[in-house]
Fold this sequence. Notes:
71% helix
Amino acid sequence: MNVFELTPQMVSGQLLVGLINGSFYALLSLGLALIFGMLRVINFAHGALYMLGAFVAWWLLTELGVPYGIALVLSPLIVGAFGVLLERVFLARLQGKDPLYGLLLTFGLALIVEGSFRHFYGTSGKPYPMPEAFRGAFDLGFMVLPYYRAWVVVASLAVCIGTWSMIEKTTFGAKLRAANANPTLVQAIGINVPLLITFTYTLGAGLAALAGTLAAPIYQVSPLMGQHMIIVVFAIVVIGGMGSMLGAIAAGYLLGLCEGVARIFYPEAAGVVVFLIMALVLLLRPTGLFGRQ
Length: 293
């Protein structure tokens, strides 16, 4: 694209797309960083949980007539319950082992879940109608901002800030951080560390499902929707710093905007800009922007 042909509408439109993508990246990266920080598991099933969230919302609407607002609550709860099953049956057995085992296990689980959905639903997407309350747009003069896009940004930011505040600013969050730093000592003073670990994975799964539910009216609900997303989100978590929740949130939004900027000036680079930045960060700061040794 010739930069001299750019208009405010083009620039603002691409930045909006980047901000929307960044909202999903931030939610997914936060859940992934939370799980890694507590369980030391690189959860490659996170993309499948994102896909499950979208499918649960779609199924609730098409089969039970459950409206979007209720599905936004039920979908994370249902997928979170599925996360409890995964953690208790599979991941709990890998505690204390090399993180590579968890990576391979969750990668296999993701293939099983996605393959099962592909068998029953095919690879074509399922449309999720735009909720009635969010049809329409704000006319900002220099651009038109759809109500639903604005809602996604606000909801994502509120959930990210709320989750970070719970972990960093509350007594319960202090117990989680202590269990991560020294689980043996925390268990010795009477705190149920396995329960905290299960809650952490459940929360991470719920965040992925919430992102999937928010994405359903924008993107088609498809068994393949989590495959590309998990690779990008993993790169964002590396950029932010493995296990750093603040890094995951900040890098998610920033990298989404970087994709938007790349689409303006060099669209061919939009799909790889995240990985280029990841390579640069790893060269200059291997622990990530917000990571610690």
